[in-house]
Design a protein that fits this description.
By secondary structure, this protein is an alpha/beta fold. Helices cover 37% and strands 17% of the residues. It is built from 13 helices and 14 strands.
């Protein structure tokens, strides 16, 4: 499917077919496609899109982040062009600060297309050996968090298994990291400014050493950002540069989205939460009544249909129970009924997904069953 246009929560393909979009730029478009903030960015286009010299917006974005969101972190952030880049820089900083090389991640997590974090050709064995994969939402992982690690990287909510009951597990991981002098990197690329104004960090009361952002922070333009506690950010001789990093167009968009989050002008997190809960409640009732081996799980406006009625605690459980060919057939049928769910299966609701739209999605799912 090739998209030629998007507006609010609708996308239009090259054949002029209309779909309700539940991907919303993989969660980046929390207000909606073609929103008022994006339209204002055109003013910066006339002033230039790239300088490779510091621009006036960057300091303002830094100030917003420090004053309203992360007062305990350093007042300056490292900006780049994607969540992948932000995580790459976070890992580099952790290694530089600790003078250790091994990093631990969790099964089912996603931190971008980094060597060692993905399977497939072209990744050297030496790189793979520097990454340890831990079981998610499972206390067995705690024994593997030892002082040989530079850092543990974790999302507060996984896209592969979005759940609101994960707080106690996150705190166990945080405590174990502190106990063994291992840095905790909180990957808020997807969850930052989406789960809440303070992201997953605020919802679950997590205090990471390093945090990364992306998606929503860019206001619809490519962005990555890295923040850290002052004594860590002060680590010398760590390279962060990039031609398009902190370019004026992206930073203008970032300033706009942070300002509207602070003012609660275009984003109402309570509404996002309520509408997502409505979607989950209605669909789970539907699946039960139709005796379908399907459920929908989620946390705030991040949701996912799982193709099993068995309780799961992580991606490993999902993989045991789900029928992949059934999922593919269902999503294709759903697309024919006017609702698009991306290949990663994550349903990101936006401010444009009104109650009326929610019920349109539910009806399309009912027809597709």
């Amino acid at each position: 499917m090739v998209i030629k246009e998007a507006n609010k929560c609708y996308i239009y393909d090259s054949h002029d077919n209309e779909f309700i979009d539940t991907s919303m730029g993989s969660g980046a478009q929390i207000i909606g496609h073609n929103n008022n903030l994006i339209k204002k960015i055109i003013n910066q286009v006339h002033k230039g899109t790239i300088y490779t010299i510091p621009n006036c917006y960057t300091e303002e974005v830094n100030n917003y982040l420090h004053k309203y969101f992360n007062p305990d972190l350093d007042e300056k952030y490292v900006f780049c062009n994607s969540g992948t880049e932000a995580n790459m820089r976070a890992i580099r900083l952790a290694r530089a600060y600790t003078n250790k090389e091994k990093i631990a991640k969790f099964h089912g997590g996603w931190h971008g297309g980094l060597d060692g974090f993905i399977e497939g050709c072209g990744v050297p064995e030496a790189t793979k050996n520097l990454i340890t994969t831990l079981p998610y939402n499972d206390d067995k992982c705690l024994k593997k968090i030892t002082n040989e690690l530079a850092a543990v990287i974790i999302e507060p909510v996984q896209g592969s298994n979005p759940r609101s009951d994960i707080g106690p597990f996150l705190h166990k991981v945080q405590d174990k990291c502190k106990e063994n002098n291992v840095l905790l990197i909180l990957d808020e690329v997807m969850t930052g400014f989406r789960l809440s104004a303070l992201g997953g960090r605020g919802i679950f009361n997590i205090n990471p050493d390093i945090v990364t952002y992306g998606k929503v922070l860019g206001g619809g333009l490519p962005i990555g950002a890295l923040g850290a506690k002052p004594h860590i950010m002060e680590t010398a001789n760590v390279f962060y540069g990039g031609t398009f990093s902190a370019n004026p167009l992206t930073m203008a968009a970032s300033k706009s989205i942070l300002k509207t989050i602070i003012n609660s002008k275009h984003i109402k997190y309570s509404k996002l939460k309520t509408r997502s809960q409505l979607l989950r409640d209605e669909l789970n009732d539907l699946f039960l009544n139709k005796k379908k081996s399907m459920r929908i799980i989620g946390c705030g406006p991040i949701n996912r249909i799982i193709f099993t009625d068995k309780p799961i605690k992580n991606r490993e459980d999902r993989d045991k129970f789900e029928n992949v060919s059934l999922q593919k057939a269902f999503y294709e049928r759903l697309k024919q009924n006017g609702v698009f769910i991306n290949t990663n299966g994550i349903i990101h609701l936006s401010m444009c997904h009104t109650r009326k739209i929610i019920y349109k999605i539910i009806n399309a799912i009912q027809k597709s069953l």
